[in-house]
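## Example pair
The file below holds two records. Each record gives the amino-acid sequence first, followed by its structure token line.
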Amino acid sequence: MTFRFLLSLSLLGILLGTQAQTNYDEVLMTIADSDITVREFISIYQKNNIQNQPIDQQSLNEYLDLFINFKLKVREAEDMGLDTVSSFITELAGYREQLAKPYFMDKATIDQLVQEAYDRSTIDIRASHIFLRLNPDALPADTMVALQKIKEIRERLISGENFEEIAIELSEDPSARDRQANSQRPFIKGNKGDLGYFTVFDMVYPFETAAFTLEVAEISEPVHTDYGYHLIKVYQKQPAMGKVTVAHLYQAIPKGSSAEDSLNKALKIDSIYAMLQNGADWDSLVLLYSDDKGSSSRGGILPKFGVNRMVPEFIEAIYNLDEMEDYTKPVLTSYGWHIIKLKERDAKPDFEQIKGDLKQKVIKDSRSQAGRQVVIDKIIDEYGLKQYITEKQAFYPIVTDSIFKGKWNVVMAEGLEKPLFMINDQVTSQKEFAEYLAKNQKKQAKQNIQSFVNKQYKDFLHETLLMYENMHLEEKYPEFKALMSEYRDGILLFDLTDKNVWSKAVKDTTGLKDFYEEHKSEYMWGPRVDASIYTLKNPKAATAVRSFISTGLSDEDILKEINSDDEQILTIQGGKFSRKDNLYIEKVTWEVGVSREFTTDIGVVFVNIREVLNPEPKQLNEARGLITADYQNFLEKAWIKELKKTYPIVVNKEVYNKIK
């Protein structure tokens, strides 16, 4: 929501309350030929009742006046055609798109997913997987081959074969095996399927769900994701580590190190640990001995990270640190030896603290499709859906591999104009689907045509269902209709008020000057003095400064006489001051002449009053902000007066009196 729209709504922002006992569909007032119901009035009235304050007749009348003024401005904006301007239509459409989004996600489903995400965020899991790659658009026959193979692998695991050995042998995740060094990368040791630790949102949703469902040491059934099939084995579940900041002292063991080199590294890290135990300074040892030169100059501190950012041995060591500044015994990882010190651990938030963030993550994640699917199912139940499968199958022979190069021509579907499906009484044709295919084609890997068409058809059907629902939001949901009306009126109000009041007051310099001349007596200075305040670091120089003042030397010349290029011992603050503008102006007696000296922490201060000024009008440039604001109020009142002459207003007093 933009500032300009908030500003428009704030023009109606009175904190009132109402417990209206009336028919919301009754006409409360008529402005020109437009009827305004109690519902519209009460809707905005209650929305601004943030503190639920009780109603009284005076505040109700004040609110009614504001509401009428608001509607008068909107009516004039409509008569001027501002609601037909392309920029207005585009802006309102943008707001509507954002406001409509919640209606395409089932709230109960999203709330359930948010709670599930929070529950999972309290747990860290260490697991391994064996992976078989499968294109998400693979043919059914290819899918069956992959599924059968993953089932056979699972049978071997269930019969007792080693998970790590099978992962090295058969997993299509390349990280399972050692990867030799080349010109682009160093040697990388294989993880044997071990994915380390992770928590919610670290894995794709089907994988995550399977892992959180499994018991420790249990092997999953085949898990299908967009990447292929997985077998998952959970090794550990424990309370979440959360986000931490640690420092480490690192002794690297490079690939290819001899047994003797590795032993020497172990002995060295043990000796460093012993020095720490005997009271040696952590930062000094890190600077001297750590092989992580990127962090050694700052005490070994690493950027804050979560559980999925480090190898599992490193994470497990952190789990055992309870207090800040605690450090581990030497920890061996695939990179070498570490001593790890805990610097900071984020407090574990409660549900209410992170509910909003979790909801945003859920909505952006693939798991939100569950909430979208619930809405789609409801739309089908409400309106009905009739599909013509034969008409869909007509696309199988005419969609060619050129579509995977982004070069399929919709002419290929010429003559296909039969109904494809029908939502309620709205028919969608084959031609519309052909245009959708052409519009959304892109360069991508070649797929099975039938599977591709089926997926595109499903996406097109779902989009059309949601578009149909979108077209009927205002008639189905009164609160959405009211909200859109508020946004529409708010934008119109801003644009016209800016033109007639805000910008006009700034641009109309002649009008502003005339307004000032007519009201200048309302913008008065109180008593002031024309004075200078002298601050000296060296009190001994005060006599010289006083002497210069008595001879009539200007402040600028006094500064030149007292200060040098090497030393600035005098500062002078000159001008016109009100009593509260400065501590020393307030302390001195307001008489022409030089005051006594005040001793401060940095030297001495005294004041020279040149003239005591009587109250006088402020100049326009001295109070431009305040005068401009008053001029805006003046313009708005004059504008409202003219609007009331142009548009007749009739309030139904009988209906109005029921609103209490």
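Second record, same layout:
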Amino acid sequence: MLKELAWDVLRKGATIERARAAGLFADELVEGGRVSDLATVLCEIAQHDAGLALAVFSHFTARALSGEVAPGGELLAFSPFLESEATLSGEALSGRIPSVALAPLAQQAVVALQGGGFALVSLAGARLSEAVATLGSRSCPLVDISFDRARAKSLGDGA
């Protein structure tokens, strides 16, 4: 089913909006499924549109790290590069995260923390940069995000 959805989106012209409308980011696609199924489809998508593959990878990685904490069906932003200048103090996150995929389209992001671990953070009030120019990922919006005491919840070390 995942493969058929991916090919349908690619045939119509890959955009994040088309992928969402087709259900390519639906949680049900990977619940109870195998990671190898997702990896195979990501490989095929990447051959045609690296940006769409990055978007799908980022969303499902964020979903896996957030577990039951994030509302289902919601698009999640994530920085696949795991670079972070962000720190969590209680439930307040401050700092900067570079190259966050899907941030302009999401309400929340899963971010790596300086020193290890991850947090689920609201993007309300976050400062988003202009789009980060990256070769091959035009269809996946990447931005740098700055937080100043944004509301966040620790997700532990991601293990």
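Notes on the second record: The two ends are 28 Å apart (CA to CA). Helices lie at 2-12, 16-22, 35-48, 50-66.
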